[in-house]
Specification:
Blueprint lengths: L3 E6 L3 E6 L2 E6 L2 H13 L7 E5 L2 E5 L4 E2 L11 H15 L11 H17 L5 H11 L9 E3 L8 E4 L2 E5 L6 E3 L1 H9 L6 H8 L5 H21 L10 H6 L3
Antiparallel strand pairs: 1-2, 2-3, 3-5, 4-5, 6-8, 7-10, 8-9
Helix pairs in contact: 2-6, 3-4, 3-7, 4-7, 5-7
Length: 245
């Protein structure tokens, strides 16, 4: 057996890989409850749950490789991106999970607070925050709830050739806006939005997807900074915000 690989670690949770087993340690077991239940419900491939002994959840590794990494060009084919779009459509058409999602009012309130923090602490220029706050407005509209993954970033979608082999990290799954998932999937990979939409099908308002790019980035920066990540790296959240200027 090879050594232990630390996949991700911060003050809320950590994921370790030991051979073909991933060990997820989470201080909040409600997130793990959601993850396990969501994986049992969704109509797309997910990792096999090997065992659970709180605070640890053991999952089998998925075949294939991640669709991409934020901040780096994706080597996946257009067909793989389209397959990710098609898998996302299957998820969004599934029956809703029984637990609640975030409300529009909650998201808008949090956005106001994060924008104030970014400007008040000198993290970002006021004009950059103001412009992206304006772009984000298009996402703050009523939506018909869909079963969303909630954190469908490229590193959470695994592919082999043009086939999706599985999707990981379901702790944010909930009823929500379908276009949010599409935005997170293509965040920092705008050049693949057309491929994803081709696989997903109809009902995609590209202006709303772009609005979610701004909103997601504005909401994420403080958490990233406070947990030891760098949103200013090339191609990451701050570059996403600058691209909207």
């Amino acid at each position: 057996m090879e050594g232990i690989e630390v996949v991700v670690a911060h003050k809320e949770r950590a994921t370790l890989r030991v051979g073909d087993v991933f060990l997820k340690v989470d201080v909040d077991q409600t997130r793990t409850d959601v993850e396990v239940e969501a994986m049992a419900m969704v109509p797309i491939p997910t990792p096999e749950v090997l065992w659970r002994k709180p605070p640890v959840l053991a999952l089998a590794a998925l075949p294939g490789t991640a669709l991409g990494v934020l901040g780096e060009p994706s080597t996946a084919s257009p067909g793989a991106w389209a397959a990710a779009g098609a898998a996302t459509r299957l998820l969004h058409e599934a029956p809703l999970p029984p637990w609640p999602g975030r409300s529009l009012d909650d998201i808008a309130s949090r956005l106001d607070g994060e924008c104030a923090w970014l400007v008040g602490n000198g993290v970002l220029p006021a004009d950059l925050v103001t412009q992206n706050r304006r772009v984000a407005e298009a996402a703050l509209r009523p939506w018909t709830p869909a079963f969303i993954h909630g954190d469908l970033q490229v590193g959470h979608v695994f592919v082999d050739g043009d086939e999706v082999t599985g999707v990981i990290d379901w702790s944010e799954a909930a009823p929500g806006d379908a276009l949010y998932d599409l935005a997170v999937l293509t965040l920092g990979h705008e050049e693949h939005l057309g491929d994803v939409v081709a696989g997903y099908g109809t009902g995609v308002d590209l202006d709303v997807v772009r609005a979610w790019w701004s909103l997601r980035s504005l909401l994420a920066i403080r958490w990233l900074v406070e947990n030891g990540f760098d949103p200013s790296l090339p191609g990451c959240e701050i570059d996403v915000l600058r691209a909207r200027m």
